[in-house]
Amino acid sequence: MGFELGTLARDAGYDLLAFDTVGSTNAEALARARVGVAGPVWVVTRHQTAGRGRRGRAWETPEGNLAASLLVSVEADRPLAATLGFVAGLALNQAIRTVAPNIAVAVGVDGLDEPRGPKLTLKWPNDVLADGAKVAGILLEVDALADGRLAVVIGLGINVAAAPDGLPYAATCLKRLGSDATAEQLFTALADAWVGFHAIWDEGRGLSEIRRLWLAQAAGLGAPVAVRLGNDILRGTFETLDEDGRLIVLTADGARRTIAAGEVHFGAAATAALQ
Question: 91 to each of 65, 121, 128, 211, 246, how far by Cα in Å?
């Protein structure tokens, strides 16, 4: 089975470029934006050899995992365009639940559905966690188009069949969590889920609803947080997101700090991390 768009994505006019192996799906998408391709187009692969995560870190995509990048064009400024990362997180969380329902839900002894298995959460700004272990990461890159719009590439790397070892944080994959879903199945579900959440976002007009949906699935809300800001570390409690999607940290002295970017650790990890 190869990669295929879902019905919703096809009907909405999305295109698809699929590779058996590629250096970076984000790089492929950006290259097309720079020669005038406005999208929306997905670039996907089972095996990425030169992927990258946030802050230039490498992101491994061995055979069987999924690397997917979506190129879209928006009439928005860069801060608003960056909130598409929240859209992607919501879509990815829904896609995982669709193809791997055994991870989150099972039939109880009384015949009713009841929660079971890892809890899927969204970690600010752009990760998906399963019981606190990273199962996916999202990287946004933005370029200006000649017509004044922005080309936004939303890259998603999902641990489907394998997870890297030796990282400074816990990582897992769908296979370890008991799912036999394939990268191809996950992509089809993701492409369709994106259409729904992108419609809610509505060129940024629906950001408040995206924020509400995202906070309902947020990791670490109300828990201790540590944020590296250059050479400094800010500690406090993850209180909420502001209306622009920035992290609000309540410090011990009662002050509220607004964070647009930073290396973040939540919960118990915040007390030991970033030493």
Answer: 17, 12, 11, 13, 19
pTM of the model: 0.89
The answer, yes or no, to whether residue 106 has pLDDT greater than 70, is no
State whether CATH 3.30.930.10 applies to domain 7-215: yes
Question: In CATH, what class is 224-272?
Answer: mainly beta
pLDDT in tens, 93-103: 999 999 998 77
Q: How confident is the model at residue 224 (pLDDT cuts 50, 70, 90)?
A: very high
Phi, psi angle pair for 113, to nearest 5°? -70, 140
Residues 6+ apart with CB under 8 A from 184: 1, 2, 3, 4
Residue 62 · residue 47 · CB < 8 Å? yes
What CA–CA distances, in Å, run from 75 to 81, 84, 235, 242, 261? 8, 13, 36, 22, 22
Of 248, 228, 214, 251, the C-alpha closest to 127 is: 214
Amino acid type, 21: T
Q: How far apart are the first and last CA of the chain?
A: 47
Answer whether 119's CB lies under 8 Å from 214's CB.
no
Owner of token pair 């992290």: 247
What are φ and ψ of residue 174, in 5° steps? -60, -35
